[in-house]
From TrEMBL:
Pfam families: SLH. Residues 252-264 have a biased composition (Gly residues). Residues 217-229 have a biased composition (Pro residues). Residues 208-269 are annotated as: Disordered. InterPro entries: Cell_Envelope_Struct_Comp (IPR051465), SLH_dom (IPR001119). Residues 230-245 have a biased composition (Polar residues). The keyword Signal applies. Residues 1-27 form the signal peptide. This is SLH domain-containing protein. It comes from Paenibacillus woosongensis. It comes from the Bacteria.
């Protein structure tokens, strides 16, 4: 394909400038939302060269539309156009001085690459169509596109504007652009950001190929003509660029373009070897220990995520899905932090200073450790009136709690909860070991030990559970506590202190109310009932002058304990028997066998509850 001679000099000069863009001085920027893009490699390449930018926060928005003024900036950077000598007066009224794309648009105009819509309108803010992208890129290449339109075979070729037909055909022939899978081209469809990046990458490669194919012989500094192929060239050393230490060495070394990477030195292409020293599973929050046989970096990556190159690993790190640590000494145990990672299967990769990527390590499982959470306000109440072997209190599991004495049998689950992530795990007492096993999906994953933190309280393992024994001398002034220690994989992962309160005072009723057929009685501390509990209720009509009333049959109401309160629900029979209940009516209630967890009973005084 012939080049337009007028533009050829510009193209060759621009290609020479691309060498400076290939190795940006700043650190590589990794884009986090291009993993699913067909143009991922091209996008990252142009970002690395400083030709395109993301939208901020590591995002590129690959499927977003490219606007004409942003395309002008990409074109100016790709060609290395002079953006420092913009004219005093703006060519287009919609791209005035001070606009962020002003210098790039004017540079493209001066290079003869952009013409605008006419009437001094550039189309600022308009999306760039696919056919216009082909026109501008082929114009920038200086390609003679005359007559190329006749070779178009797209099913919608007739929809391509007459001014763009030849350029589209030339762009396809050059491999810059291609049609859709259904055989169409969609000329008026807006070009998205990923397609522009792909075409721009191919465009730059095309320029570089043209530069090399058209480059004239070089005259040595001494003015002599270079030796012919038959003459000795031992004294002539081609100029090369020595690669910077620690560069990723992605195959573009600058210099002569031979790919040697430096003057006589061979590129390191040997992948490092990674070894895992930690045993699986590793608990999140602790360190995973690994080694690499070369200096560079270690990456802890969730299995199944893209990991074929360092750029993909960096994206995962930027997204918070992976961890990275520098290896400063080869074959030295290096800790990789695991905090803030999700639970799952991971692999470790090593990347050496030359950018070579190791194979994935063996699988490592990251798990969140078990957690031990004390129930809000939880305390363990004992009555100092019951010393040592009288009414011994035993901490038991769910299987032992039904219909038992609420003082002597305490459910371990009422004091705290063991969790993994958000899932509560079950506890089961093991009499052979004298400890509570933590079960996850039916399998033991840990255990809890209960011990006393006071000389006047003893924790003793038995067949049913752990007995808590009060010793002589204990009274309400005694300060005591129980320690609960959680183990996983035979290692302590958590512990908490459960306060022990010695209580010999009976609870007092603080409130008793009626509402919609329900009577609620609240006391100064949570209430429970014991085997001998009894509730007597009498109805006192508002206009009654008598002093003795019939007791309400037990079948007319349903008593329960809810959240430490006595709740009495009147059944339909009660309303039929006492019809009509009306404001001012009262219920006289007496409680027996109901008290606190220390077995201190409520007094037998009569409670008066009035219907509002």
């Amino acid at each position: 394909m012939n080049l337009n001679k007028k533009l050829f000099a510009k193209v060759i000069t621009a290609a020479a400038l691309l060498g400076t863009l290939a190795s940006p001085a700043s650190a590589t920027t990794f884009i986090t939302d291009i993993n699913g893009s067909y143009a991922k490699d091209a996008i990252q390449e142009l970002v690395d060269k400083g030709i395109i930018n993301g939208r901020g926060d590591g995002r590129f928005d690959p499927t977003g539309h490219i606007q004409r003024q942003d395309f002008a900036i990409i074109l100016a950077k790709s060609l290395g156009l002079d953006v420092n000598n913009a004219p005093a007066a703006a060519t287009f009224s919609d791209v005035p001085q001070g606009h962020y794309s002003f210098a790039a648009v004017e540079a493209a105009v001066q290079a003869g690459l952009i013409h605008g819509y006419g009437n001094h309108q550039f189309g600022n803010g308009d999306s760039l169509s696919r056919q216009d992208m082909a026109v501008i890129f082929t114009r920038a290449l200086g390609v003679d596109v005359s007559g190329k339109g006749s070779i178009l075979t797209f099913t919608d070729k007739d929809d391509i504007s007459s001014y763009a037909k030849d350029a589209v055909a030339a762009a396809v022939e050059l491999g810059l652009i291609q049609g859709n899978t259904d055989g169409s081209f969609s000329p008026l469809q807006s070009a998205d950001r990923q397609s522009v990046a792909l075409v721009a990458s191919k465009f730059i490669r095309n320029i570089e190929e043209q530069r090399h194919s058209q480059q004239p012989p070089t005259t040595p500094p001494d003015g002599n003509t270079p030796p012919s192929p038959n003459e000795s060239s031992a004294s002539i050393t081609p100029e090369t660029k020595t690669p910077t230490t620690g560069s990723s060495n992605n195959g573009s070394s600058g210099g002569s373009g031979s790919g040697s990477g430096g003057s006589g030195s061979e590129r390191d292409t040997t992948a490092p070897i990674v070894n895992i020293l930690s045993e699986t599973p590793v608990f999140i929050g602790s360190s995973l220990i690994a080694t690499s046989n070369e200096t560079g970096y270690l990456y802890l990556i969730p299995r199944g995520y893209p990991s074929s190159g360092r750029a993909e690993l960096e994206v995962l790190v930027a997204e918070g899905l992976a961890k990275k640590v520098q290896v400063t000494t080869a074959n030295t145990p290096t800790p990789i932090e695991t905090d803030q990672l999700e639970a799952g299967i991971y692999n470790v990769f090593a990347v050496d200073r030359a950018g070579n990527l190791s194979r994935a390590s063996s699988d490592i499982e990251l798990k969140r450790p078990l957690s031990l959470t004390l129930a809000p306000g939880a305390s363990f109440v004992l009555n100092p009136a019951y010393v040592y072997d009288e009414s011994i209190v035993t901490i038991v599991d769910d299987s032992m709690i039904e219909d038992n004495d609420p003082y002597t049998d305490r459910n371990i689950n009422s004091f705290f909860q063991v969790q993994r992530e958000e899932e509560a795990l079950s506890l089961q007492y093991n009499p052979q070991e004298g400890r509570f096993h933590v079960l996850e999906e039916g399998a033991k994953v840990g255990y809890i030990l209960i011990s006393s933190e006071s000389e006047l309280i003893e924790a003793q393992e038995t067949e049913r559970g752990v007995q808590i024994l009060l010793k002589a001398g204990a009274d309400e002034a005694t300060t005591a506590s129980l320690k609960l220690t959680l183990f996983e994989n035979e290692a302590e992962v958590s512990s908490t202190i459960l306060p022990v309160i010695l209580d010999a005072a009976p609870p007092t009723v603080t409130d008793s109310v009626y509402s919609d057929g329900v009577i609620t009685i609240t006391a100064s501390e949570p209430l429970v009932w014991y085997d001998s509990f009894e509730i007597n209720i009498s109805h006192v009509p508002v206009n009654s002058s008598g002093s003795s009333y019939d007791l309400m049959p037990f079948e007319h109401f349903t008593p329960s304990i809810h959240n430490g309160n006595v709740v009495i629900i009147l059944k339909d029979e009660a309303f039929r028997y006492y019809h009509p209940l009306q404001p001012g009516d009262q219920f006289e209630i007496t409680l027996y066998g109901i008290g606190d967890y220390a077995r201190n009973m409520i007094g037998d005084e009569v409670l008066i509850v009035e219907i509002p």
